Amino acid sequence: xxxxxxxxxxxxxxxxxxxxxxxxxxxxxxxxxxxxxxxxxxxxxxxxxxxxxxxxxxxxxxxxxxxxxxxxxxxxxxxxxxxxxxxxxxxxxxxxxxxxxxxxxxxxxxxxxxxxxxxxxxxxxxxxxxxxxxxxxxxxxxxxxxxxxxxxxxxxxxxxxxx
Length: 163
Fold this sequence. Notes:
Layout: E1 2-7, H1 12-22, E2 28-31, H2 42-54, E3 60-65, H3 69-77, E4 83-85, H4 89-97, E5 103-107, H5 113-124, H6 133-155
Parallel strand pairs: 1-2, 1-3, 3-5, 4-5
Helix pairs in contact: 1-5, 2-3, 4-5
């Protein structure tokens, strides 16, 4: 698989550790930054990774910030993306098996490097077998309605129907 990875400056070291742990796997890792401990805003990196996943340039993504919450919220704003925050192996597996989450998010201030590596490997070593497909389909359908309605409202010159 081709895996996008990205972090903010708070998680730079953990991102580098995870990249290193994936070096001897069959996965190709594409680093979307950050590339140092210089301050960056996590939404910038999270949107770039989400776009790459959404457009099929990569198969899955891994995003890391201090808690994993900010990058998770950001990624989930991107149409078509399901990002899941997981800090244990079981949740990481279920994110993929039950929900077909294309992006895994982690918090560098929540988990240490050894746990993070196990969580990432658990997420990458399973494939969605359409578990909870009915539920995921409902999420996708509603999201498409929201996106379509927002587009219609924008064309009509309003902001989601609010004046």
